[in-house]
């Protein structure tokens, strides 16, 4: 049976075709998959590549297909209106790169034009004079691109020609333009085995970033119905640049929700794994077990080669620290919350245990304080009551009693483990990792940052940090510089949102309007320019007189989505507190809708997923309900310091509550419903 591969750029274009044409395209493909009966592949007279044929989609549309000279693999490269499709065929050719072994789709007319432009405008100094023709050919540069390379005078000219050059050849030229040596470029791009440029099947398999191999009609429909899974094969150039760049030190990628930061982190992990090729050399990490598990799933979706997977250690930070400390001290016994409270109670009768625990984390550990003198001089912004010097002495005694108690009994907290791991690493002569990639970096604590700084030697590409401070849902505010991480000049902000419709994104961004949110680098972060190109319905806001009415409405809406064909696990329901989760799950179950709490161990497949707003971090759903957004639940009263106690702490708590709501709402891809009973939350816009 004939096999079909599709250029991923077409998959995006498919979404923009009108539904009639989409249907025709699918019919044509189904015929094609069924063996090709009834498909007419027509020769194109002026095509740049003699293997190109056109397929009739409907009266106005044509597809351009590369037919095989040997074998059974067809490549669908383009579907467009008749004239545009033919014009495309007159400009492009397909070849297998002799060094990288991948399929390249080259705009040969465009390359010629770019060469002529450069030659006409360029000065006498050519950018690649230091690289010989023979070296360029060895790197897989073909004759036409060689002429282009000889015309180039600066990096910008290479960047401008990105869409016209073959992808692998572009990578070579941009690498050289950025100062890599030909040997370094070779190591990045070359296949280890010799390339057979006639073997289209092997080349297509190697081009998984761009070409999607479809083996049957079901899989084809699957690809069409899940354009979101496309990130595996296609990255936007702005994402790819960040994922594949060489940085002289720590680098950071930020960007609003759904801009692909996690996707970039995963691609970066694969890229570095390919480069280092040493088991466990790359750490891909984040701050919770659940998020680390989803990074692991993502990496496995992206990387199929077992030896590459082995290069990447995917674990959450506390787990990594735990292992380092356990290696030195043996099995670690970690306090649970009740045990910690009991120890604080024992350590001092002068203060509440909650106060002491918070002071320890937010002042002592956060600032890395180790002496009373340092504590006497420490800033305590946002910590409520002022403490005189004498009062600090009393508090310090409590810390000492608490810490020595831990030491004496050989017990730990996650924080003391992290601090000890950092100490051990500072004393060690070798760090365990060559590269560290951190996702959801906005929620790491200062002691976790110090640990990460210590886990990898400082140098090129040491730390890669992905995060969005608008989505900070815990109280960790960190200045990267103060924890020894300098990303100056190596920060990129992604702007295109691939998850959420423009309507949901704009409304959600409104929740944070006027908030001054730091960028972890002693400046302010901004969502300006964050956009989505996909349009849909406005978010729906509904208030009710009773909780019963609210639940009934939510249940009916979920039923409606399911009736419309949305899979149950593509519906998420978020709320601020944990308590109402059971109530929502039961209400759905009573109406025959399978549902599960995200926190439960039960299988989640085939169920509507219900959880706290915090738990929604890292997830996404086609349809999202954010429920219980009343004035007495959002912001959560117990999580906000009263203004009368500490104005600064109150403002920060309120900001965090807004961010938590923002995170929940931006999990929605297509539909967002926000509900409340009684008076709506003051965090919601008035209308
Ligand atoms: N280049 C791309 N092409 C197609 N889909 C993409 C691309 N980049 C990201 N996506 C999709 O967009 C969605 C959001 O991506 P991702 O989770 O990486 O964003 P994020 O910036 O980490 O989000 P958040 O900060 O909100 O958690 C995912 O479904 C992902 O598959």
From TrEMBL:
InterPro entries: DNA_helicase_UvrD-like_C (IPR014017), DNA_helicase_UvrD/REP (IPR000212), P-loop_NTPase (IPR027417), UvrD-like_ATP-bd (IPR014016). Signal peptide: none annotated. Its EC number is 5.6.2.4. It catalyses: Couples ATP hydrolysis with the unwinding of duplex DNA by translocating in the 3'-5' direction; ATP + H2O = ADP + phosphate + H(+). Gene3D superfamilies: P-loop containing nucleotide triphosphate hydrolases. It is an enzyme of class 5 (isomerase). The keyword Methyltransferase does not apply. It comes from the Bacteria. This is DNA 3'-5' helicase. ATP binds at residues 255-262. Keywords: ATP-binding, Helicase, Hydrolase, Isomerase, Nucleotide-binding. Residues 234-501 form the UvrD-like helicase ATP-binding domain. One of its GO terms (molecular function) is ATP binding. SUPFAM superfamilies: P-loop containing nucleoside triphosphate hydrolases. GO terms for biological process: recombinational repair. PANTHER family: DNA 3'-5' HELICASE, UVRD / RECB / PCRA DNA HELICASE FAMILY MEMBER. Pfam families: UvrD-helicase (PF00580), UvrD_C (PF13361). The keyword Hydrolase applies.
């Amino acid at each position: 049976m004939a096999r079909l591969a599709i250029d991923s750029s077409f998959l995006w274009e498919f979404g923009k075709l009108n539904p009639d044409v989409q249907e025709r395209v699918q019919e044509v493909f189904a015929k094609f998959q069924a063996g090709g009966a009834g498909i007419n592949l027509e020769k194109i007279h002026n095509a740049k590549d003699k293997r190109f044929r056109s397929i009739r989609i409907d009266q106005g549309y044509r597809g351009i297909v590369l037919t095989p000279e040997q074998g059974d693999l067809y490549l669908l490269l383009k579907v467009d209106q008749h004239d545009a499709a033919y014009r495309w065929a007159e400009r492009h050719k397909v070849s297998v790169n002799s060094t990288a072994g991948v399929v390249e789709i080259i705009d040969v007319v465009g390359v010629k034009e770019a060469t002529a432009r450069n030659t006409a405008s360029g000065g006498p100094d050519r950018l690649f004079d230091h690289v010989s023709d023979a070296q360029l050919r060895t790197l897989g540069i073909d004759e036409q691109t060689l002429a282009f390379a000889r015309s180039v005078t600066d990096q910008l000219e290479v960047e401008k020609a990105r869409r016209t050059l073959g992808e692998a050849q572009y990578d070579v030229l941009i690498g050289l333009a950025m100062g890599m040596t030909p040997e370094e470029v070779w190591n990045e791009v070359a296949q280890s085995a010799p390339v057979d440029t006639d073997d289209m099947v092997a080349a297509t398999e190697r081009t998984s970033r761009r070409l999607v191999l479809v083996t049957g009609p079901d899989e084809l429909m699957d690809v069409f119905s899940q354009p979101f899974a496309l990130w595996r094969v296609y990255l936007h150039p702005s994402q790819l640049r960040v994922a594949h760049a060489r940085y002289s030190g720590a680098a950071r990628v930020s960007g609003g929700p759904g801009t692909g930061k996690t996707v970039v982190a995963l691609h970066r992990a694969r890229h570095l794994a390919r480069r280092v090729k040493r088991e466990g050399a790359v750490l891909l990490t984040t701050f919770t077990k659940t998020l680390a598990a989803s990074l692991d799933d993502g990496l496995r979706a992206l990387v199929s080669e077992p030896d590459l997977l082995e290069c990447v250690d995917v674990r959450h930070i506390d787990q990594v620290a735990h292992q380092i400390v356990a290696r030195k001290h043996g099995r670690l016994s970690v306090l649970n919350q009740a045990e910690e409270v009991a120890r604080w109670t024992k350590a001092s009768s002068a203060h509440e245990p909650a106060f002491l625990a918070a002071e320890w984390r937010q002042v002592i550990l956060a600032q890395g304080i180790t002496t009373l003198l340092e504590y006497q001089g420490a800033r305590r912004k946002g910590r409520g009551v002022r403490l005189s010097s004498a009062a600090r002495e009393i508090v310090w005694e409590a810390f000492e009693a608490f810490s020595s108690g831990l030491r004496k009994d050989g017990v730990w907290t996650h924080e003391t483990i992290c601090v000890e791991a950092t100490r051990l690493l500072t004393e060690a002569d070798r760090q365990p990792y060559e590269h560290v990639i951190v996702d959801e970096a906005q929620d790491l604590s200062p002691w976790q940052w110090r640990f990460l700084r210590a886990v990898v030697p400082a140098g090129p590409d040491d730390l890669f940090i992905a995060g969005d401070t608008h989505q900070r849902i815990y109280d960790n505010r960190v200045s990267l510089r103060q924890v020894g991480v300098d990303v100056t000049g190596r920060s990129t902000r992604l702007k295109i949102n691939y998850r959420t419709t423009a309507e949901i994104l704009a409304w959600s961004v409104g929740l944070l309007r006027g908030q001054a949110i730091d960028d972890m680098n002693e400046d302010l972060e901004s969502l300006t320019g964050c956009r989505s190109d996909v349009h849909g319905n406005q978010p729906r806001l509904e208030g009710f007189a009773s909780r019963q009415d609210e639940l009934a409405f939510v249940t009916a809406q979920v039923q409606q989505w399911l009736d419309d064909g949305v899979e149950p696990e593509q519906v998420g329901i978020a709320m601020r507190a944990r308590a109402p989760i059971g109530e929502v799950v039961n209400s759905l179950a009573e109406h025959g809708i399978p549902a599960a709490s995200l926190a439960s161990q039960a299988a989640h497949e085939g169920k509507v997923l219900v959880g706290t707003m915090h738990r929604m971090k890292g997830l996404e759903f086609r349809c999202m309900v954010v429920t219980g957004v009343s004035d007495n639940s959002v912001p959560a009263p117990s999580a906000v310091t009263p203004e009368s106690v500490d104005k600064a702490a109150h403002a920060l708590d309120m900001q965090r509550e807004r961010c938590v709501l923002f995170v929940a709402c931006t999990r929605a891809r297509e539909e967002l419903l926000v509900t409340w009973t009684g008076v709506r939350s003051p965090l919601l816009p008035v209308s």
